[in-house]
Design goal:
Order of helices and strands: EEEHEHEHEHEEHEEEHEHEHEHEH
CATH architecture of the largest domain: 3-Layer(aba) Sandwich
Protein name: HAD family hydrolase
Keywords: Hydrolase, Magnesium, Metal-binding
Strand content: 15-25%
Distance between the termini: 8 Å
Number of helices: 10
Radius of gyration: 18 Å
Number of strands: 15
Cofactor: Mg(2+)
Largest sheet: 6 strands, parallel
Family: Belongs to the HAD-like hydrolase superfamily.
InterPro entries: HAD-like_sf, HAD-SF_hydro_IIA, HAD_sf
CATH topology of the largest domain: Rossmann fold
């Protein structure tokens, strides 16, 4: 880890769980700062925007601003701009995701959209899902913000965008044309340019093998798995995805980084 200059931190299951910081979270940031390294919260969870994440982190005692957060919702907005320009889209997503997409010049359209965007919608209704399926059957472009099947919570795993993808596939026979978030390397490309760093100087710290770790490995970054969220040690041992480092939680990682 001596060569790592930027740590990308997943949030749900890695830095906090629900409204509680995971053991060692603040200590890890202190060590990173003391060594002159950088960090960025990088999350697939598109149900909130950067502002909402900053508000939550500050409530938990983490002094950050919006430059310290990058979400799959933002990456989706940038992808749409590059691929389609400013678009009229039908959204299965939260008000916060709508706010994020509109801040990049996109508009939300119910009757005659150009494409469908599916995010982690904690405000989902049957009406929205039904309308999305009708539009997807018309062969409109169909974009998902990320593929996570579950979102960790204090009560246990909750259905995430990947579960909605499966539901829509059962109804329409279609999978998304493009899934923007981790493990897609698009987010890494944006981050690499923003910090002017090669991916070999970047580490991804996360709790999911099929998103966080695949994302790092595909992008040429260091893959650090924490076992404080979705992935259990048994999951890791059965998986063909092998991160560079596996630790119990971010507290262990902080001690390792401090020791050098």
């Amino acid at each position: 880890m001596r060569d790592v200059e930027l740590f990308l931190l997943d949030m749900d299951g890695t830095f906090y769980l629900g409204d509680k910081l995971i053991r060692g979270a603040l200590e890890f940031l202190d060590v990173v700062k003391s060594q002159g390294k950088n960090f960025l919260f990088l999350t697939n969870n598109s149900s909130k925007g950067p502002r909402q994440y900053v508000e939550k982190l500050r409530r938990l005692g983490v002094n950050v601003d919006e430059t310290h957060v990058f979400t799959s919702g933002e990456a989706t907005a940038l992808f749409l701009l590059e691929r389609y320009g400013k678009t009229k889209l039908f959204l299965v997503g939260t008000k916060a995701l709508e706010e994020t997409l509109c801040s990049y010049g996109h508009t939300i359209e119910w009757r005659d959209p150009q494409l469908v965007v599916l995010g982690y919608d904690t405000e989902v209704t049957y009406e929205k899902l039904a309308r999305a399926c009708l539009l997807i059957r018309r062969n409109l472009p169909y974009i998902a913000t990320h593929p996570d099947i579950n979102c960790p919570s204090e009560e246990g795993p909750l259905p995430d965008t990947g579960s909605f993808i499966a539901l829509i596939e059962r109804s329409t026979g279609r999978l998304p044309d493009y899934v923007v978030g981790k493990p897609n390397s698009l987010m890494m490309q944006i981050v690499s340019k923003r910090f002017n760093l090669p991916t070999s100087k970047i580490a991804m710290v996360g709790d999911r093998l099929y998103t966080d770790m695949e994302f790092a490995i595909r992008s040429g970054a260091m893959a650090i798995l924490v076992l404080s969220g979705e992935t259990t040690r048994e999951d890791f041992e059965r998986s063909s995805t092998k991160p560079h480092l596996v630790v119990e939680d971010i507290a262990v990682l902080a001690r390792m980084l401090e020791r050098g």
